[in-house]
Write the structure tokens for this entry.
Amino acid sequence: MSILDNFQDWKNFLSERIKQAEKMGMSQETIQNLAYEIGDYLARDVEPKNEEERLLRDMWNAADQNEQRVMAGLMVKMLNDGKK
């Protein structure tokens, strides 16, 4: 089973990667830029495995680049808030 099959597993995986990036000294801006690049890759090249991913892809594709960057930042914020 892939981590993409379950949205909670995917969120947990991303949260762990954010923690690792922070421990390596990456700034929030760098992390958000990486989140944008990952979001763009997923929307273009990865078939959604569940309804949450399908919704995110559809929203991503409807958004302009600035809105996509906001979405990426919100995803990082959501995962950071989950650590508290």
Summary: The mean pLDDT is 88. Helices lie at 7-23, 28-45, 51-62, 65-81. The two ends are 28 Å apart (CA to CA). Residues 47-84 form one domain.
